[in-house]
Design a protein that fits this description.
Largest sheet: 5 strands, antiparallel
Shape: globular
Strand order of the largest sheet: 3-7-10-11-12
Strand content: 35-45%
Structural class: mainly beta
Number of helices: 2
Helix content: under 10%
Distance between the termini: 41 Å
Order of helices and strands: EEEEEEEEEHHEEEE
Radius of gyration: 17 Å
Length: 142
């Protein structure tokens, strides 16, 4: 339990994770965060043109995100949105060689959105069906 601004919250522990290359096109799983990034030629999601290697990574000092109202450091943006400090490293950043494309839970970099070219990106929760997680093939439930 942690005090976060004016409330007490039960937060998951901060998870240690490292940058991983994103499958373009395809699906990239971050099981330690319970998330999956899906990249496809068609929506849904936000569309952005990429340059070079695309990574899913933790935030880094100096990261900036362009929003409709202008550019802000990711640190300041997370503080303004009252994202608890313990959760900030667990929000994956999608970036290529020229900068941020988007941040899970915050949104895309508006300066990188493209209407007519690029890939569609979206984050999805990784769900495990407890009824099917440990069943052997051909095993009956009756």
């Amino acid at each position: 339990m942690e005090r976060c601004y004016d409330t007490l919250q039960l937060l998951p522990p901060e998870v240690s994770w490292a940058a991983v290359p994103a499958a373009i096109p395809g699906s990239t799983e971050l099981p330690q965060l319970g998330l999956r990034l899906v990249c496809s030629a068609e929506g849904p999601g936000f569309r952005a043109a990429t340059q070079g290697t695309v990574l899913l990574r933790p935030r880094q000092p100096g990261d900036r995100l362009r929003l409709s109202g202008g550019s802000k450091s990711l640190k300041k943006l997370m503080i303004d949105r009252k994202i608890p400090a313990a959760r900030r490293q667990n929000l994956p950043v999608l970036a290529d060689e020229t900068g941020l494309l988007g941040v899970h839970g915050i949104g895309p970099d508006c300066g990188r959105l493209t209407p007519d070219r690029g890939w569609y990106f979206r984050f999805e929760p990784m769900c495990v069906d407890p009824c099917h997680a440990n069943k052997d093939e051909g095993e009956s439930t009756h």
